[in-house]
Amino acid sequence: MTSPRNFLLIALLFIGYLFWMQWQEDYAKPPAGSTPAAATAAAPSPSAAATTNGADVPSASAHAAPAAKPAPDSIASASGQRVVVETDVLRVEIDTRGGNVVVADLLAYPMQPKDYAHPKRLLDSSDAGFFEAQSGLVSASGAAPDHQAQYSAEKTAYSLAGGSDTVEVPLSWSDASGVAVRKVFVFKRGSYVIEQRQEITNNSGAAWTGNAYRQLQRVPPVIDTSGIKGYSNIERYSFVGAAWYSPADKFQKLKFEQFAKEPLDKPIADGWAAMLQHYFFAAWIPAQGESDQYSTKTYVAQAADGSAVNRYLIRTQSPAINIAAGATHTDAARLYVGPKLQSTLDQIAPGLSLTVDYGMFTVIAEPLHWLLAQLHKLTGNWGFAIILLVLIIKALFFKLSETQYRSGAKMRKLQPRMQALKERYGDDRQKMNMAMMELYQKEKVNPLAGCLPMLVQIPVFFALYWVLLESVELRQAPFIGWIQNLTAPDPYYVLPVLNGLVMIATTMLTPSAGMDPTQAKMMKIMPVVFSVLFAFFPAGLVLYYTVNGGLGLLQQWIITRRIDAGEKAAAA
């Protein structure tokens, strides 16, 4: 996969692929600052957001009779007391207003490399980065605390004790009618899963009927540049939006731009609902066997400064809960707030690892990621794991590459005769091509022999690109020396330049006979084109391609020398 023609084809394919992804990203996107028509019709106007019913609170259902809706929330609404919970991997803030998880810091994932004093904030209550995990109850027949109700807390700070593996955080709510709710969050050591119980006690003297719901609500995220040059250019191609899973339909996703056009509204059993972004996500996972109504909505809320803000929401709502007078019922669900760790997600819930979205290259990218992970266990360094991956792929494709290089060496030997044919037939392309085909047949040379290795390896190239783009395990992973982040571009462009030098050397060993002047010029400028193109690629991908090209060049040189030696021996 190292001939200049192959480089040119891959460059054109990759550039076209990036343009296609960008077109997909921008297609049908509303103008900046506008609100989709369907959303405007379904949601209150910004000026009325604080005083009229909003799309952010469900009605009670069986899935069922309408109930009075609580007042909608807005970013400007007053918060309650904050309860801070810290484990070995999470720092969480729970707002007593609604009992919602409003802040979540991922302690093992710093914003800047090795700066653990400033961890990645996934859930965020600020205006610019608003992203909350909310839950509550609605009832058509009695009192119920939704995600805006005021709870009370026993303490304002919790942490894992030295010898303990769990910590429970209880919140309480009660109504004069006799309905009381105890919302309990359970945190475990080393886990990004937060268990939640809503214990509903009905002392109202009459039967209570309602629904539990869980929802993720956010504004579109601001691209996280992490202070690393070129990082935002890489992150922009990662999917951002809502996603859900069902055993029947498997993994589904919905961009924010499509919320108004393709809203979700269907019952799903044994599924989950999530909001995805680059490397990280949050997901509500209802209890096993529970059939919930899943839905998405977009509406306008009012920010603290009075401006209108588009919000996006994905919700799961339980079937009707019937509690007799004097009885208690517990609704349980789990909240995942953390990184896209492929090796552990499916142990939490079926299909959760699909949040690592490799797109059409999943079938190749998943084995590549698994193999990279095994090589990392062996080396302890993701850069060396990539180099070992190159060696394995080169070994697998050795015979195909050998065929390619032997064909190239034979073509190189035919260059003088091919040049003579060009001079003989001049501009008569038809006769020249026929004469060259006769020459190929006579000398038993297949000019297309070099295409097969390229065609086989192109999917590997694209799949590895997505592995490096989406794998949180490689986030901020250092290699050696100046490369301290394999998922960001090479800061000093050393690898792109090395790759260009490898291409130049490869060009010198590649036959150029049969090319027209335009093709010949393109082959000469390809090293420069690729050096510029690779300057914006993740350093890990350029490392892969540079090592792959260098090994290919060595293999090509050895095969060419062997053919030359064989011909000299035969002539002697």
Features:
single chain; 572 residues; alpha+beta; 6-stranded antiparallel sheet
Structural notes for this entry:
- It is a single chain.
- With 572 residues, the chain is α+β, with helices and mostly antiparallel strands.
- The chain contains 13 helices and 20 strands.
- The protein has helices at 4-26, 37-42, 231-235, 342-348, 362-379, 382-396, 398-413, 415-425, 429-443, 451-470, 494-509, 517-534, 539-571, and strands at residues 82-86, 90-95, 100-110, 119-123, 131-139, 152-153, 157-159, 166-174, 179-188, 193-202, 208-218, 241-246, 250-255, 265-269, 272-276, 280-286, 291-302, 308-317, 321-323, 328-339.
- It has a 9-stranded antiparallel sheet, with no helix packed on it. Strands 5, 11, 14, 17, 18 and 19 form a 6-stranded antiparallel sheet that branches.
- A hairpin with a 4-residue loop joins strand 8 and strand 9 (179-188).
- The protein is elongated, with a radius of gyration of 30 Å.
- The model is unreliable at 22-55, 64-77 and 226-233 (pLDDT under 50).
Number of DSSP helices?
13
Fraction of residues in H or I helices: 25-40%
Shape by Cα distribution: elongated
Structural class: alpha+beta
Output the radius of gyration.
30 Å
User: What is the end-to-end distance?
Assistant: 34 Å
DSSP, total strands? 20
Average pLDDT score: 81
Low-confidence segments, given as residue ranges, are 22-55, 64-77, 226-233
Strand content: 25-35%
Strand order of the largest sheet: 6-8-9-10-20-16-15-12-13
Largest sheet: 9 strands, antiparallel
